[in-house]
Amino acid sequence: FEGMAHMESGSIFRHNIAGGTELGKKAKAYIDRGDLVPDDLTFPMVFDALREEGDHGFLLDGYPRSRAQAQRLWEACVAAPHDAPLRDRAIDLDLHHEVDV
Prior knowledge:
50% of the residues lie in helices and 8% in strands. By secondary structure, the chain is mainly α. Helix 1 packs across helix 3 and helix 2 packs across helix 3 (39-53). The mean pLDDT is 83.
């Protein structure tokens, strides 16, 4: 989709770390230890990136990874003011994955 931002969680982390943001510094400490970055750090970084770059729609890659993350993102998009670009950019997909062996 032309103009749609492809947003990778890893790139969002790297952008915040390279930019020396407070969230990036905290995330780097987890990454350096080999731990997963917790949701309370990941969500604000992802949502900030969406607000900055998601005006023409977005495709998230690597986030959300859990039902709780998806629910939080959905609620934040729906709660956005009517004139906010994110409010009308969310699509609710219910995908079923089957593997034939």
